[in-house]
Every structure is written in structure tokens, then in C-alpha cells.
Amino acid sequence: MKKQLLILLTLSSFATKAQSYSGYFHDNYAGVQSVLFNPASIADSRFKTDINLFSVSSAVSNDLYGVKLFDVFKDGYDFDSQSKMNPSNANNALINLDIMGPSFMFNIAPKHTLALFTRARSVTNLRDVNGNLVDQVKDGLDQSSDFNYILGSPNGASHAWGELGLSYAAVLYQNGQHFLKGGITVKYLQGVGNAYIRGNNVKAEFEEDAVIPENSELTTSGELTIGGSQDWETNEDYEFDINSSGVGFDFGFVYEWRPDYEKYDLSKAKPADNNFRDLNKYKLRFGLSVTDIGSINYKKSKQDIYNINRTVTEDMIDNADDLYDFLNDNYTKTSTAKGTKTNLPTALHADVDWNIHNKFYLNLNGDISMVSNTKLNGTSIANRVSLAPRYESRWFSFYVPVTWMEYSGTQVGTGLRVGTFFVGSGSIVSNLVSKESKAADFYVGLKIPVYQKKFKDRDQDGVIDKQDSCKKVAGPIENKGCPWPDTDGDKVFDKDDACADVAGPVENKGCPWKDTDGDTLLDNVDACPTVAGPVENKGCPWPDTDGDTVLDKDDACPDVAGLVENKGCPVLDTDKDGVADNVDDCPLVAGPAENKGCPVVNKATLAQLQVEAKSIFFTTGKATLSDAKKVETSGRLDAIKEILKNYPNAKFAVYGHTDNVGNAKANQKLSEERAKVIMDALIEKGVNPANLTSQGFGSTKPVKSNKTAAGRAENRRTEIVYLGNF
């Protein structure tokens, strides 16, 4: 009984630690466990689904006792004498038990995820206990000397309950390097049991009677409140009440900074990439959440308030059967039984996760209690900050959390995840080396993870192997990843080949070219494939634009109808003499039609020719033109030339004559030579040689009598004679 009273006065119990699964739950592969601390964390996760079979986390912490932890489990260890105490006016002690039963999470859509979990929890808090009194009475009142302590308002609560939670998380915003997701959890709460105690301005004074120990006196003052989910005074056996239930909520947000977001552009993702779901895409991740909003209504709860202003003897303490008998026999009590709403340990959680390089991360996280330490029947967490470097991969993670914990100080732990198994402790390292450990925790779990992964595409044709009918040969998705056949080998796939069994060019849909118009040019190079035409004109008929039967290629006048014999041009009359050029022997000189368009050589013309010809002088006895008459002779020749060119179709002859003086043969030769000299001179001046001939007659054709000097002079002459037309 004395021991019970000491417990009552000192409330030397334990209470909840800050969090479960220290170091593990910020791992990107924590899966369904991560939803317990931030519901948003399961969105856009690395899992298709994650199934927790069983996991448990437990922790103990205080700031009064320090021990060499592993010595505690040795036989003969005396806690009171071998532990190191650190008493103060407000000591605290903590304990937590968190069991997660069958639970799972799964993606219902690329940006939406659900989780369903079962969980059993036990939370006990002890705050503001006067550790000096605990140290004073640890061996019992009968072993204590006089003491006088102000205990103040120590406060303790213990609560156990179960949860059935449903979480929903989704991607809320995604733009460039900014990515935000949010989540909420709704929990059905089933109460298991609740008990609490709180003092109000409690003081304790002990005066020892060394002669008669049983007359030693304990004087107390103040007020003591004791309550619970059932009437523990009348029934010490636990009674489960299905009607003790409630509803709880968690919510949270996660922001990710993704500076390399272009690498994960879904519009550029191949099917094998599986939308990059298996990859870490952030450089920095920020999380913020609030958990355990809500309460459980214990309808059968009872609360007793004792006024403990009285002095009792050690004999009175020894004679009481139990604590309730002692309190009821010696103090005034006020009782109520109206039901109690017991809160959850509401807390604010924050974390920053830095992807240092590849699979190496550094996480900074912390918890802040949102429940007042002075709240009656209030359960809460201890404030905490933790820094945890880690290495993580799909099937293995290792982390070393370094934590500052309210009450118990700094502790170092470690943990790992291997495949389906994970185990760890937030304090194991410090407990191995410290002789004054004030905290201990551990967790262990077994799960079935089903990860997101990059799909296999061995032939890299964009069709993943599980959908590829030809896994080792590239082919289009339309043909189930198999190459299209090409039966005729013309590089036109059968699906596009209009002549699948006969080779043909791509541009003709795999068919050989035809010669539709039969002009020896294949249709692909025939500019007129349906009308026969010569090769030289690309298979098209030659055009006859002016319709004169002379094809344009041969028509000198393709736009004006003309005669074939005039190369397709209309007939001209250049000299305007009424005789078309095509029948005009002299198209440049006007002449009558009866003379084929050439001018007629008349008597006047002939007479003029004779006059000009007679005035051409030679050196005496020679066939050379006279130098003395050179200018005059040249003028006469020019005049003859101008006359002759007007008759392009006329034939003229130059005749030479002499007198009868001298040798007849010499005269003949001289006449011939002189006629030729004149003919050559005219040709040299531009007369057509075809229009001229020359002939000498010697003295055979006199025009006057050779008997006189005047007559002989007349007979020495040259003549231009008209012979007719060509």
C-alpha cells in the first residue's frame, strides 16, 4: 500500500515517445507506413501497391533515470541503486506502442492513390513530476527521513485504441519544376481503454517518528483528479466497450522541386519508361502535415476528485487494503460519470528531404505537439528534431537518424530495409556506447512491396515486351511489335503494297509502272500517260498551236497559220509586186507576175547598158583597163552593177569585139580577155556570178566599116547582152 501511495504521489510512470519508425518513414520506399505521418506522401509513389503484413514500433524515454541499457536485462540488476538519477522539480517519462496490422496502398489512377490500414496504439504521458521526491522515497517512507516537497501539478494520462484508416492522396499541381500533392486520412477510432490522473497544487510533508515508526505522519494538501474509461474502483477487470468510438483525421501536403523536369516530360515518354514512375524526380522535397485530429467518446467513463488536505499516519497507510480504500477512507471525494472525450495526440510534422546525389539523401524532420501539457486526460507527443542521412534503392535502404528529443536529449540510431523486411532503432547506436541512456526504441516489419518499374523493350521498338509479339525484332505497334512483311522485296510493306506479289517502286504503291498509251514511255516518266507521244516530247503529242499542220517544233511561226513549204509561216510579198515571195523569183525586187515577179529587161535598160559598156576603156592592144580613164571606167562599172542587181533572175553576157587590124587570132584572144576582165570586175563589185557570162568575137561582128578610122573605132567595143531569165 505504501508503494501505491508513492506511485500516486510521484506519478512515476511512462508516456509516449514522439514518433514511430524513426528514420524509416521518410524513405521513398516506406510505402503504406509513410501515410501514418503524411497522407500526401503516397501519391506519385514508387509502388504499384504496398502490402504491410505486420509491423510494430515501441519506444521508452524519460529525463529522470539514466542507465546502461543492456545491463538492465542482466540477472540481479538493481534499477534503484545502479541507475543514475537526474531529479528536477519537473521530470517527464514517455512510452509508446504502435502496431500496424494488415494494410495496403495502391494507385487507382496515375495521379490518385488510396491506402487502407489497421493500427493498434497505446499512448501514456507523464509530465511535471517532482523527481526529487521520487529520489527521496525510492526505498519507501519507512526508509526516508523527513522531507517537505511542493509537487505542483503533475499530470499523467494513458490511452489505448485501434484505428481503421482510409487515405486518399492526389497530385494537385504540376507545372515545370513545381510539383505539389496533397492527402487526407479519415480514421474510424475504436477505444480500448483510458486512465488519467492530475494533481493541483499538491504538497507533501513527511515527519518521521524514530521511536514509534507507525506514528510517522504524512501531511498532504491540494487536489487530486483520477478518471478512466470505466469505474476502476468497483471493477478492476477490464471491460471492452464497442460503443466507445470516434472519428479522426490526418491531412498533409508535399511539395517537390524538380529542376530537371524536362527529363521527365510525359509527352516524350516511351511506353517502356512507364511515365518515369520508378524514378526519383525531385532535388528537394518539403512535407507538412497534421495528424491525429479527433477524439474517442468513452460513455462509461468515471472521474473522481479528491481533496487531499489532511495528515495521515504510516499506520493508516499500512492498514488500507488498496489505494481506493485509502483515498476513500481518508479524503473527501466528488464523483461524476457523464462520459469523457479523450483526445488523440494531435501533432504538426514537417520534413525537408534533399537528394544529394543519385541514391544518397539527407532528411531533416521534426514534430511539434499541438496538445497542452496541462490538459486533463491529454495525450501528446514530445517535441523532436531529427537529421537522417540515408542511402535508398528499390530493394535496400540504410539510414542513420540523429535525433534531439524533448526530455531525453540527443540520440543516434540506425535502420535498414532489405526487400520485404525492415528493422531499426532511433537510439541503438547511442545506447551501445552510453552509460546513461534515457531512451530506447525499436521497430520491425514485414511487407510485400510491388514496385513501379521500367518495362522491358528488348528490341527498342516502342512496344513493351509483354505486348510485343516479336520481342527481339523491332516492329510497329500497329502490328503488335512485329515488322510488316514485304513479300515481293520491293521495300513496300504488304499493307501498303497494291501489288504485294510483284515488285514495284514505292511511288507507285509497290506496283510496276505501266505504259497505258503504248508509246514506249512508262507512265512514271510519261507526261501524257493516256495519250501516245514521241519520246523526245516526254510521251506527249507535239502541239500544232496555229493548226496549220506544221508542228510547233518545226513551225517558224507557231502562233500564225502558214504553209508547210514556208515552215508554217504565212506567205509574204516583200517587194509588193503582187507575187508571193514563195513563187517570186525576185522577192526583193518588184516585177510582173508573168515574169515570176522579176522586173522585165526592156530596150531602154539594154540601151543604157550599151552606153555604159562602150565607155569602158582599155590600154591599147591590151586586156587591162586604162589607167588614164580609171575613174570614169569605175563609174561605168558601178552603173552597170546597179542595173544588173535589179534583175536577179536575168542572164547577161559580156561580149568583147575588135577591129580587123592585126592578126585575127590575136584579136580573138584579146576580145575574150577584155570581156572576161569586165565580167570579173562586175563580180568583184557584187554582181552574182550566176548572172554573168563572157565571150569574145574578135573582129567577126563589126558594126561599122573597118575601112575608116571612125568605123574601126566603133568596132572596138564591149557589150552587155540580155540572154533571158533563169
Distance between the termini: 169 Å
Under CATH, the topology of the largest domain is which? Porin
Continuous helix count: 10
Structural classification: mainly beta
The percent range for strand residues is 35-45%
Radius of gyration: 66 Å
Largest sheet: 23 strands, antiparallel
Write down the CATH class of the largest domain: Mainly Beta
- Label the overall shape: rod-shaped
The parts where pLDDT drops under 50 for at least 5 residues are 1-18
CATH architecture of the largest domain: Beta Barrel
Measured as a percent range, the helix fraction is 10-25%
Work out the number of β strands.
28
If you average the pLDDT, what whole number results? 86
How many structural domains does the protein architecture include? 2
In short:
By secondary structure, the chain is mostly beta strands.
Task: Give keywords.
single chain, 726 residues, mainly beta, Porin, 60s Ribosomal Protein L30, Chain: A, 23-stranded antiparallel beta sheet, three-stranded mixed beta sheet, 28 strands, 13% helix, disordered N terminus, cell projection, Bact_OuterMem_StrucFunc, flagellum, signal, membrane
